[in-house]
Design goal:
The strands form four sheets. Strands 1, 4, 5, 6, 7 and 8 form a six-stranded antiparallel sheet that branches. This protein has a five-stranded parallel sheet with strand order 11-10-9-12-13, sandwiched between helices. It has two domains: about 150 residues, Alpha-Beta Complex (Quinone Oxidoreductase, Chain A, domain 1), CATH 3.90.180.10; about 150 residues, Rossmann fold (3-Layer(aba) Sandwich). The chain is of the alpha/beta class. The N and C termini lie far apart (about 90 Å). Helix 2 crosses helix 3 and helix 5 runs parallel beside helix 6. The chain contains nine helices and 15 strands. Helices cover about 25% and strands about 25% of the residues. Bound molecules: NADP nicotinamide-adenine-dinucleotide phosphate (NAP). NADP nicotinamide-adenine-dinucleotide phosphate binds next to helix 2 and helix 3.
């Protein structure tokens, strides 16, 4: 049985993908279309959307390429996080009047399965916060700095896109986690002032002024321990150079490349973000405590023939430079050695 408010809409406006963009999208890529509101089936609710989120990742969904989330389809409604009020319900768990978040944004009204909606407590915070600081935005900042690139007390932390949704929350969470110094990067004087005056950053760099590396070095003369990367490209390059040994980077986004029509040279580290890859540097010297364990195992494997090894041997000290240059150019198979 369907519970309703007195008057229900017959039609709803929705934005559809009109055409896929090449490079930066324009208004021509979107079409506003009016469509009938479907009847509710059992277990569904009709939601009047009051807020919707627009997020950088949606740019990727406008392209037709495989990713962690399917592309938008041309001629079909866009989607994304939204919040609204249930105005008709065929789901006992979600009565009329419930405020919910769900994924059918970009439209006035949405018919959704109740199982895909999450009720939110509007007495706890303003409803729209559930699409921002209390939504995936806030969780992204928190998870990045507690789970992915853990902030330790005393750390120097660098946050990119720091005046944006994730970044502005991340800067404040870094401080709460005990960071000694939090530096934010943003575009333009108004935003960098906001970082200092409103969001409590200790220093701010304006990447649009240029010399990002120099500005970051001035703000963090001893380097940085944690970097939250939302931008990729130049920001990531500069941050890697500024990292202290043992530093941690959370690859969260790469917005500087989202509108690129062609791939930049070098690895596409946005794929490392979306595939949740682990990239970790190593120096063997840090692993010397493993030596005993390894030698015991490897000697056994050599003895029983399950570990094979090869050597390329040059004879005579005079051959040492040739051997050395050879190892750089692939003249060796297995271990290159010089027998003296
Ligand atoms: P946002 O930061 O509120 O908005 C994007 C900001 O990016 C803009 O305000 C702009 O600020 C900055 N920007 C745009 N082009 C830039 C460029 N070429 N160089 C430097 N900065 C640039 O957006 P958000 O929702 O919080 O997302 C931030 C990042 O996190 C995005 O990369 C997004 O894809 C990513 N994200 C990832 C996850 C995840 O699960 N991995 C979840 C949420 C968000 P300026 O004016 O300062 O340039």
């Amino acid at each position: 049985m369907t519970e309703t408010t007195s008057t229900l809409p017959i039609t709803s406006r929705e934005f559809q993908l009109a055409a896929r963009p090449v490079g930066a999208p324009t208004a021509a890529n979107f079409a506003l279309v009016e469509r009938p509101v479907p009847e509710l089936s059992d277990g569904q609710v009709l939601v009047r959307n009051t807020w919707m989120s627009v997020d950088p990742y949606m740019r990727g969904r406008m392209d037709d390429r495989p990713s962690y989330i399917p592309p938008f389809r041309v001629g079909e409604a866009l989607e994304g996080s939204a919040l609204g009020e249930v105005i008709a319900s065929a789901a006992p768990d979600l009565p009329v009047g419930t405020t919910v978040t769900h994924f059918a944004g970009w439209r006035d009204y949405a018919v959704i399965d109740a199982a895909t909606a999450t009720p939110v407590d509007t007495s706890l915070a303003a409803p729209q916060h559930y699409l921002g600081v209390l939504g995936t935005t806030g969780l992204t900042a928190y998870a990045a700095l507690t789970n992915v690139a853990r902030v330790e007390p005393g750390d120097t932390v660098f946050i990119s896109a720091a005046a944006g949704a994730v970044g502005s929350v991340a800067g404040q969470i870094a401080e709460k986690l005990g960071a000694a110094r939090v530096i934010g990067s943003a575009g333009g004087a108004a935003k960098t002032e906001l970082l200092l005056d409103e969001f409590g950053f200790d220093a701010a760099v304006d990447y649009r002024k240029g010399d990002l590396a120099g500005q970051l070095a001035a703000a963090a003369p001893e380097g940085i321990d944690v970097y939250l990367d939302s931008v990729g490209g130049e920001h990531l390059r500069v941050a890697v150079e500024a990292m202290r040994p043992g530093g941690r980077i959370a690859l969260v986004g790469a917005i500087s490349g989202y509108n690129g029509a062609t791939a930049e040279p070098g690895p596409d580290l946005y794929l490392a973000a979306t595939k949740e890859l682990s990239l970790r540097g190593m120096l063997v010297t840090s692993h010397f405590p493993l030596f005993g364990e390894y030698i015991a195992k490897a000697a056994d494997w050599l003895a029983n023939g399950t570990l094979r090894t090869k050597e390329t041997v040059y004879t005579g000290l005079d051959q040492a430079p040739t051997a050395f240059l050879g190892v750089l150019s692939g003249a060796n198979t297995g271990k290159m050695l010089v027998r003296l």
